[in-house]
């Protein structure tokens, strides 16, 4: 007769936290906790039960209190990105608005294929006290609540209606977050009464487990088809995406480039796959790319896309490539590999690059093609030199610009500093003008293009960096619009001792969208503060005074030379420093390196300039690939 399995009686919340604390992963030969703790703002929906459980495990799973639920989750996502998806954090919020504040962050994680565990309060399963505080009632569906909104922005979703369910649900949530192909946010709705209900859990459920991330070997037949296409090509390029880093495939990428003499271009997510100056590292591609990469893309007869989901900013809304160019993809996610009828190789980038290289053997592409790539790259490098310079060719001082600020930081920072940017004009300026000093040191969040990620993401990245002895500073580029939208983690970083260097580029509003507005024939309207519905004369926000009020060191500068000196002081400071400056909203943009980008323009308008712009947009569509 089988012996009865040993059990322990715990609340659902206690069991959930105990299980998380027992999960480990091996990274570079070192065993560490898989969950690095989390972020939480407590309310009546999560404080009494989940809060009690987290308190008991506060040493194993440190809980950090942010100032806004969205920014907490963004910090957790940035942590996971810096850790190359090998570790994750959780974010917990109360029922109601605390939970709905997480929706934007969940969408960002989903879009960027990044893991975070969302533990959200919910209404009572019994419904006996209904309607409760912060409950959104649906008259014809009492089971429907705000937590259901997360179904569209998470990879895994569950509402726990009985304590026993986490025995199945928690392992599935973790498996999703660790799955290279299906990675993304996991959501658990935790009704307030169920959090406190107890059950006799198997003791074995809480045994320590060490996880390893799966590596999928590509199919031999898919490799053979890809290799045949590559061998038939004369002018191929390799597009390296963020998946190269998540797969730890940078050495294989370098080996592939050298063995087969193929030019490499990088996506926004793939920035910092290769270091600036490496042979055949030809710059960023796409709408916010470089002339070198985009010219090569136009001339290439084969596109080999590795670890990229081929977003429109990479493909120029699918106008960046010749209509007849072959498309070969290598991606661990079938959904991404099979886009645009590509010759797809589904599998791990590290294993796939090695297998394809072996199958190619000694095949090397013509030096005339690689020579052209190197020539174009040198020309782009010369353009960047001038673009980041504070003086024009005739020696005159130029108005301060994003590019100049990016260039100044690039010149002064340590090679292991991590730079963070997101949304607005800065992602384009960083992508185009940044010269990578070391692998994996750039986080430009442009998958979801989320304003507010900048400072919160830098905080999460800093937490991750402080676990790495080789890491240096975390540098955040943010515009005034994003700063005003979400800045409270300056205070969080000061309280927690997570030093940041925050560069605030103030151009008087949402200047990059104003530029798009003007470039499509529209008048400036509701983007720059001066062009909005205001009742007083527009004035500049004193960002330095605001940041200082949250405990940061802060100063305002008026030239690039002043900025450089301030940046040096920030490097030597012992806590978060904010450097504020006004930059040109109209003429300070990087003007080269742009591929066509499709935006909706009015077919009918009373404005002649809008009608003319629509015609120009439609003309650009002639190069658009519509499948093969």
UniProtKB/TrEMBL annotation:
Renumbered residue ranges of the record's region Disordered: 601-628
Pfam families: TPP_enzyme_C (PF02775), TPP_enzyme_M (PF00205), TPP_enzyme_N (PF02776)
InterPro entries the UniProt entry points to: DHS-like_NAD/FAD-binding_dom, Myo_inos_IolD, THDP-binding, Thiamin_PyroP_enz_cen_dom, Thiamin_PyroP_enz_TPP-bd_dom, TPP_enz, TPP_enzyme_TPP-bd
Residue stretches making up the Thiamine pyrophosphate enzyme central domain: 224-355
Residues annotated as transmembrane: none
Domain Thiamine pyrophosphate enzyme TPP-binding: 445-580
Annotated Basic and acidic residues bias: 609-622
A GO term, aspect molecular function: 3D-(3,5/4)-trihydroxycyclohexane-1,2-dione hydrolase activity
Keyword Manganese: no
Annotated EC: 3.7.1.22
Domain Thiamine pyrophosphate enzyme N-terminal TPP-binding: start-end pairs: 39-134
Gene3D superfamilies documented for this protein: 3.40.50.970, TPP-binding domain
Top EC category: hydrolase
Keyword list, A-Z: Hydrolase, Thiamine pyrophosphate
Record's keyword annotation contains Iron-sulfur: no
Homology family: Belongs to the TPP enzyme family.
PANTHER family hit by this protein: 3D-(3,5_4)-TRIHYDROXYCYCLOHEXANE-1,2-DIONE HYDROLASE, THIAMINE PYROPHOSPHATE ENZYMES
Protein name per its UniProtKB record: 3D-(3,5/4)-trihydroxycyclohexane-1,2-dione acylhydrolase (Decyclizing)
Organism encoding this protein: Pseudahrensia aquimaris
UniProt lineage: Bacteria, Pseudomonadati, Pseudomonadota, Alphaproteobacteria, Hyphomicrobiales
Gene that this polypeptide is encoded by: iolD
């Amino acid at each position: 007769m089988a012996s009865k399995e040993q059990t322990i009686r715990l609340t659902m919340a206690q069991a959930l936290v105990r299980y998380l604390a027992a999960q480990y992963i091996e990274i570079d030969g070192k065993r560490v906790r898989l969950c690095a703790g989390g972020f939480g703002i407590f309310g009546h929906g999560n404080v009494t039960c989940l809060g009690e459980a987290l308190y008991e495990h506060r040493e194993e799973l440190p809980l950090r209190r942010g100032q806004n639920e969205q920014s907490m989750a963004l910090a957790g996502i940035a942590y996971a990105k810096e850790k190359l998806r090998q570790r994750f954090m959780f974010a917990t919020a109360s029922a109601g608005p605390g939970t709905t504040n997480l929706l934007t962050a969940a969408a960002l994680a989903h879009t960027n294929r990044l893991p975070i565990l969302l533990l959200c309060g919910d209404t009572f399963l019994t419904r006996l006290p209904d309607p409760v505080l912060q409950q959104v009632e649906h008259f014809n569906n009492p089971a429907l609540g705000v937590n259901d909104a997360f179904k569209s922005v998470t990879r895994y979703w569950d509402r726990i209606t009985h304590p026993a369910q986490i025995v199945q649900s928690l392992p599935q949530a973790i498996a999703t977050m660790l799955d290279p192909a299906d990675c993304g946010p996991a959501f658990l709705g935790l009704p307030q009464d169920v959090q406190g209900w107890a059950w006799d859990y198997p003791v074995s459920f809480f045994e320590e487990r060490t996880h390893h991330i799966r590596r999928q070997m590509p199919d031999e037949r898919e490799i053979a088809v890809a290799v045949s296409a590559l061998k038939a090509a004369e002018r191929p390029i390799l597009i390296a995406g963020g998946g190269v880093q998540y797969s730890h495939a940078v050495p294989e990428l370098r080996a592939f480039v050298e063995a087969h003499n193929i030019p490499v271009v990088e996506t926004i997510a793939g920035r910092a796959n290769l270091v600036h100056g490496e042979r055949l590292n030809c710059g960023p591609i796409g709408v916010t790319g470089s002339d070198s990469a985009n010219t090569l893309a136009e001339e290439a007869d084969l596109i080999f896309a590795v670890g990229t989901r081929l977003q429109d900013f990479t493909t120029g809304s699918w106008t960046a490539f010749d209509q007849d160019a072959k498309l070969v993809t290598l991606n661990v996610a079938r959904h991404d590999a099979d886009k645009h009828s590509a010759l797809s190789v589904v599998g791990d980038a590290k294993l796939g690059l090695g297998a394809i290289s072996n199958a190619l053997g000694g095949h090397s592409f013509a030096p005339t093609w690689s020579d052209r790539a190197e020539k174009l790259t040198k020309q782009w490098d010369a353009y960047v030199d001038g673009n980041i310079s504070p003086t024009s060719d005739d020696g005159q001082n130029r108005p301060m610009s994003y590019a100049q600020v990016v260039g100044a930081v690039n010149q002064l920072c340590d090679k292991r500093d991590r730079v963070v940017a997101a949304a607005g004009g800065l992602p384009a300026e960083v992508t185009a003008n940044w010269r990578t000093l070391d692998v994996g040191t750039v986080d430009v969040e442009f998958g979801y293009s989320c304003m507010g990620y900048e400072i919160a993401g830098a905080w999460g990245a800093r937490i991750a960096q402080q676990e790495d002895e080789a890491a240096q500073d975390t540098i955040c580029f943010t515009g005034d619009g994003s700063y005003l939208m979400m800045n409270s983690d300056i205070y969080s970083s000061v309280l927690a001792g997570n030093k940041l260097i925050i560069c605030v580029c103030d151009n008087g509003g949402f200047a990059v969208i104003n530029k798009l507005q003007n470039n499509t024939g529209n008048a400036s309207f509701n983007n720059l503060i001066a062009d909005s519905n205001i009742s007083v004369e527009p004035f500049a926000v004193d960002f330095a005074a605001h940041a200082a009020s949250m405990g940061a060191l802060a100063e305002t500068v008026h030239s690039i030379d002043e900025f450089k000196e301030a940046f040096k002081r920030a490097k030597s400071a012992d806590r978060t420093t904010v450097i504020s400056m006004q930059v040109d909203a109209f003429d300070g943009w990087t003007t080269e390196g742009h591929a066509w980008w499709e935006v909706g323009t009015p077919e009918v308008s009373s404005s002649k300039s809008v009608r003319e712009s629509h015609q120009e947009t439609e003309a650009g569509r002639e190069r658009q690939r519509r499948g093969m």
